[in-house]
Amino acid sequence: MVGFCSPCGGRAVDEIVVASGGENVYEQGGVGDVTADGLPDVVISQNSPSALRVFPGDGAGGLGTESFLSLPGAPSPLALFDLDADGVADVVLTDVAAAQVHVVRADGLGGLSATVTWPTSDVPRSIAATGFDGDGLGDVAVGD
Ligand SMILES: [Ca+2]
Ligand SMILES: [Ca+2]
C-alpha cells in the first residue's frame, strides 16, 4: 500500500504493516539504524507482553527477521540515539507501570541488551534523546 507523508512534503511512501500476532499490544514505534548496516530499522515497544521488538530494514521497503527483548513493566514511548557513541543507535523507553526509564543497547548485529534503568519522579509519558548540550554525549529528557 502507498501512503502520503505530510511531514515529508507529501511524497509518496510505502506503508509497512507489522502484524501484532494476536494478543500483543504495541505502544509506540520509532526508526533508527540499530543493526549498523546503514539502513533504517523499525523499533516497537510492546507492553503485553512487555518487550522491545526490532525489525531490520532491508533497504528495499521490507523488514527482516525481528530481534526481541523482554522487558519488565510496561514499556511505552521510546526514542533512539547513539548514547554510548559506538556508531549504533540505542533505544530508551519509558516504563509507565514502574515509573522508570530503560536503556537498551543495540550491538549492531541484531542483539539487544537492557543496560541501565533509571527511576523517574512521576509516570513518564514522553521521552526524547539527542545531544542537547553539545558535549558529544547523548542526553535523555523525560516528560510526565
Ligand atoms: Ca539497519
Ligand atoms: Ca550505541
TrEMBL record:
Organism: Engelhardtia mirabilis
InterPro entries per UniProt: FG-GAP, Integrin_alpha_N
Top-rank taxon: Bacteria
Keyword flag ATP-binding: no
Name recorded for this polypeptide: FG-GAP repeat protein
Keywords: Signal
Keyword match Signal: yes
